[in-house]
């Protein structure tokens, strides 16, 4: 059986099992007859239909040579945007089907057929006959020869932050109308190349740094870089004697320093609509909030500090999660031991742990807490808002150590799907069983560049094939208990704190652990914070002496602001946490520390 046949058979089994569950209530004899009919008409390899075949090729004129990567076919019935921008976890998603290609030559078609992995329909065979807008895209892979001896093919970031539909150098087709029949062949030509992204401009306040990391280059077997956008304080150039505290705003890949705008909002900007906040013109509101921060930043009373946002995309995701990883490499060490010293030396940072702080939300919240736990003396505080799961007993809604299946709560007579995304009223828009097949369609072997795959790439041991070991089977949801045990000892932050608290870690973390989350977080991230609170508030040797607060009915990514609504507070991380950090620094700085050179202009 080929890889494609195995994939198709697994998808077929999932569909049959779905129908079996649906027909359980019909009755024994009738249910058996119905299931038999499904198996007769839909089994892989059945002679009744060859199904749809889509042949995708690219011309020699693109000068691309032989290419490796993930070839994606998108089909859409929504004319509002290109199909490549319409693949989501929500109900509005359109269709995508994916296959791996190795050494695809110009003019040679790759065939996407019923064996391709699909989302939300499992196979092209399931697509109803009709007219669709079709678009194909080849997400290009590069071959890495890592220091651990493994040779792997992965997508290298090219300045876009690991976005398959925006990555420069990817080939894609002009959207076109196609007719899909029961047995039809469609030809698509990849006729376009996504262009290079220009570097962001340097301004009076925003500078850009990019350095070669010796640690990462050694791991990946090629030059690897890490960068940062540096927001310098008012008066930076006029006060060369000043030495500054460093604030690290962790989060997803930033093109430039995010949330800072020197100009007033663009009066010609057409207002958009935010369905999440039920708010028209949220794009204008965001620009105003960024401009308001600029005015505060340059005001007389705002603290004079350095703030950086790090660019650390990996071949798996738009950032590294700021920790060392068996699959992604020593990103934690690269940030702490290479990037931060470089920034502090060039931009006159104080350069000591008591004068370094971290904050962030979601991915950035997890990173801030993780870096504080793994490098406890390198930083003086972490303000972690809506962090990704910090306790794997609440890996969103899955207990990795006790549950057998990630997709269902299994009972004797029924299977209840586990939710994946909700709104502030608890209305569910996606289940875990729906979210993971999207990633499987976008990339095999943990290569989708999406959320569940990056957790796997960061936390898992390396598999025999050089790719991350699966925490659960992407098709069935069955959890691998051995992988879960590895995760627990290496990346379960609450477990690690609890395990090592009285061994000396707790003393190094006193006052440094601060958690904020909405109690209706869209991804159920509040669940893990509850477990963290159970441990931290019960521990008295020593007392953790930090903050843990919850936002009533607040969604992702509430940051602890007790006054402003979620749509406003999520845009004010700098104003929320920098003053908190300065207060703590004043209380904890060692005798003789520089608390004055950076306090000019007040």
Principal-axis shape: globular
Distance between the termini: 74 Å
Strand content: 15-25%
What order do the strands of the largest sheet run in, or round the barrel if closed? 13-14-18-15-21-22-27-28
The number of helical runs is: 14
CATH classification class of the largest domain: Alpha Beta
Largest sheet: 8 strands, mixed
Taken together, the total number of domains comes to 4
User: Which stretches are poorly predicted, pLDDT < 50 over at least 5 residues?
Assistant: 1-49
**CATH architecture call of the largest domain:** 3-Layer(aba) Sandwich
User: Mean pLDDT score, rounded?
Assistant: 91
Let me know the CATH homologous superfamily of the largest domain. Answer: Alpha/Beta hydrolase fold, catalytic domain
The helix fraction, in percent, is: 25-40%
- Reported by name, the CATH topology of the largest domain is Rossmann fold
């Amino acid at each position: 059986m080929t890889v494609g046949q195995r994939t198709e058979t697994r998808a077929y089994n999932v569909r049959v099992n779905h129908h079996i569950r649906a027909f359980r209530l019909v009755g024994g004899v009738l249910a058996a007859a119905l299931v038999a009919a499904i198996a007769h008409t839909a089994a892989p390899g059945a002679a009744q239909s060859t199904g749809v075949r889509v042949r995708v090729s690219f011309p020699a004129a693109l000068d691309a040579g032989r290419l490796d990567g993930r070839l994606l076919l998108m089909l859409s019935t929504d004319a509002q945007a290109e199909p490549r921008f319409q693949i989501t976890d929500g109900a509005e998603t359109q269709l995508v089907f994916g296959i791996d290609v190795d050494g695809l030559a110009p003019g040679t078609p790759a065939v996407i057929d019923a064996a391709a992995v699909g989302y939300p329909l499992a196979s092209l065979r399931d697509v109803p006959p009709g007219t669709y807008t079709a678009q194909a895209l080849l997400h290009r892979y590069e071959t890495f020869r890592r220091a651990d001896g493994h040779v792997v093919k992965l997508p290298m970031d090219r300045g876009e932050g690991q976005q398959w539909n925006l990555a420069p150098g990817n080939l894609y087709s002009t959207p076109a109308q196609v007719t899909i029949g029961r047995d039809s062949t469609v030809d698509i030509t990849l006729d376009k190349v996504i262009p290079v992204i220009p570097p962001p401009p340097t301004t009076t306040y925003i500078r850009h740094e990019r350095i070669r990391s010796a640690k990462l280059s050694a791991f990946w077997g090629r030059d690897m870089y890490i960068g940062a956008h540096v927001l310098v304080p008012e008066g930076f150039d006029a006060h060369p004697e000043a030495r500054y505290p460093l604030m690290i705003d962790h989060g997803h890949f930033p093109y430039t320093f995010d949330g800072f705008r020197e100009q007033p909002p663009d009066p010609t900007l057409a207002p958009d609509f935010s369905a999440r906040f039920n708010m028209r013109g949220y794009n204008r509101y965001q620009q105003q909030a960024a401009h308001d921060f600029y005015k505060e930043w340059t005001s007389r009373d705002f603290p004079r500090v350095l703030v950086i946002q790090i660019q650390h995309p990996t071949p798996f995701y738009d950032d590294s999660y700021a920790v060392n990883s068996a699959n992604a490499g020593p990103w934690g060490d690269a940030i702490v031991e290479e990037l931060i010293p470089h920034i502090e030396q060039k931009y006159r940072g104080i350069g000591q742990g008591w004068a370094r702080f971290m904050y962030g939300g979601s991915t950035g919240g997890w990173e801030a807490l993780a870096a504080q736990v793994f490098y406890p003396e390198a930083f003086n505080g972490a303000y972690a808002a809506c962090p990704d799961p910090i306790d794997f007993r609440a890996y969103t809604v899955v207990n990795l150590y006790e549950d057998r299946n990630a997709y269902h709560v299994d009972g004797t007579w029924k299977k209840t799907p586990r939710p994946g995304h909700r709104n502030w009223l608890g209305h569910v828009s996606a289940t875990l069983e729906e979210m993971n097949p999207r990633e499987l369609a976008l990339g095999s072997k943990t290569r989708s560049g999406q959320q569940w795959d990056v957790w796997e790439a960061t936390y898992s041991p390396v598999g025999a094939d050089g790719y991350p070991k699966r925490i659960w089977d992407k098709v069935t949801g069955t959890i691998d208990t051995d992988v879960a045990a590895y995760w627990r000892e290496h990346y379960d932050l609450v477990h690690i704190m609890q395990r090592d608290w009285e061994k000396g870690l707790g003393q190094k973390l006193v006052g440094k652990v601060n958690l904020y989350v909405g109690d209706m977080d869209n991804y159920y991230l509040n669940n893990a914070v509850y477990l963290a609170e159970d441990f931290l508030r019960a521990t008295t040797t020593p007392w953790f002496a930090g903050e843990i607060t919850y936002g009533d009915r607040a969604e992702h990514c509430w940051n602890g602001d007790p006054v402003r609504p979620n749509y406003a507070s999520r845009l004010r991380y700098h104003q929320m946490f920098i003053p908190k950090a300065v207060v703590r620094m004043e209380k904890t700085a060692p005798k003789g520390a520089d608390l004055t050179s950076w306090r000019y202009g007040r």
